Each structure stands twice: as structure tokens, then as C-alpha cells.
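Question (not urgent): is this output format expected?
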Amino acid sequence: MPSLPGPQRVAHALRELGLAVRVVELPDSTRTAKAAAEAIGCTVGEIAKSLVFRASRSGKPVLAVMSGSNRADVEKLAALAGEPVEKADAAFVRQHTGYAIGGVPPVGHPQPLLTLLDEDLARYETVWAAAGSPFAVFEITPAALARATGASGADLKE
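Got this back:
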């Protein structure tokens, strides 16, 4: 499905996961959590931002789905990943997720990723996640996001 635009690939992935979630394309950029919150009309905390890290020894990707108001603590991520992690560069992110930074969704990657979910997302009734481009998002409950990613919430923030 790489020939489809990012938002269509994400919509397909969501359907494959059995989720009746609608991808919304917006006129304003959602590249950052602050910009996404402004474009959607929600709080920054309600943004589920997908941050990709590279495991230092194995080179495997680690996806941290964080509340937009939190910064990921690399030491906490490393403890859960079982090895040190570092922020991934743009080429690594695209290679392992199929998407560019600013539009990386929490689901719909070419291969399953070790995914860690910020427990603070559970504070909200729904959260908004990137859907394959800096202009596309989808709304989902934190519980459905946890099921879709196979991740349980953990303390990941600095």
C-alpha cells in the first residue's frame, strides 16, 4: 500500500484493526503538538504525538506515543526497551514507519514496532493522533489506542 497517500494508508490500517475511526484532513498544519491542538481546538495534552527512537545496540525502532504536553524521558524509554535509546533521524523514521516526521501515526507501519504509551493519555476521554501527513489526524479513545498499538500505559515523561 505504499503507493497510497499517507492518510489513506492510515485509514486502511485503522479499518484493518477494526476501528471505526475517521481520518480528518485539516487546512492547517498539525506538525507539532501545539500546532495540532490549535488546528483541532483541543488542549496540547490531548495530542498523541508519535516519537521514534533508535535502540543503540540493536538499531531497532522504538515508538513512544506521548501526550503532547510531555517530553519523553530517554532513560525511562531505555529501561522499557531493554537498551539505551536515542532520538532517530528523519531517514530512520521514514524507513521504519513509512512516514515523515510530523505525520507519523501510532499505527500502520510496515513492520510492528516496539510501542510505548504515555500513561498521561488516559486522562482524556479522547486523544488526537497524526494520520500520515502534517495535515491529517484521527480521534481515538486512549483505551482503543492502547489496544491498537498493543501497548499499555507507562510513565514515560521527564
